[in-house]
Write a structure and sequence with these properties.
It contains five helices and no strands. The chain is 62% helix and 0% strand.
């Protein structure tokens, strides 16, 4: 991207074409680092490395939490938000994700979709209960530590 200047401390600010949504996107894309950090190239680069490392650590914790009980996706999106304070690619991914989540929430509020989801959940629960009943009638309740050979 061309900033229109050859000044060493300037950072490019891109736009995704939503100028009509000026209230929402008033800051634009680009670094959110303080001015004194952006003014020095080495300091800005080390700032970016630090932000990337912290964001990577948070995303890694989120990935670990995915199979465990815990808010894995929330932590991953938190790491993406940390990256989005400094990197344009993360800002674009976060905007896309927010848009898709908003669209999914609006679809979920549609009465037809809600009825379908409730019906599918009920059918799934009936099938699982039936399979559990067949299993229990055939094998009974035997704890794994009391199996006799």
């Amino acid at each position: 991207m061309n900033t229109g200047s050859n000044e060493p401390g300037e950072v490019a600010v891109a736009s995704d074409g939503n100028e009509a949504d000026g209230a929402r996107d008033e800051r634009g894309l680009g670094s959110r680092a303080p001015g004194f950090v952006k003014a020095r190239r080495v300091l800005h680069l080390s700032w970016q490395v630090g932000v990337f490392a912290v964001g990577l650590a948070v995303v890694a914790v989120g990935i670990v939490l995915l199979p465990l009980p815990g808010p894995g996706w929330v932590v991953i999106f938190g790491g993406m938000a940390i990256w989005a304070t400094e990197f344009v690619w993360a800002q674009l991914v976060l905007r896309w994700t927010k848009r898709k989540v908003t669209e999914a929430a609006q679809k979920a509020l549609d009465p037809k979709v809600r009825r379908r989801n409730i019906t599918l959940t009920t059918v799934g629960l009936v099938i699982v209960a039936g399979l559990a009943g067949v299993y229990l009638s055939k094998f009974g309740v035997v704890m794994p530590w009391k199996i006799e050979e």
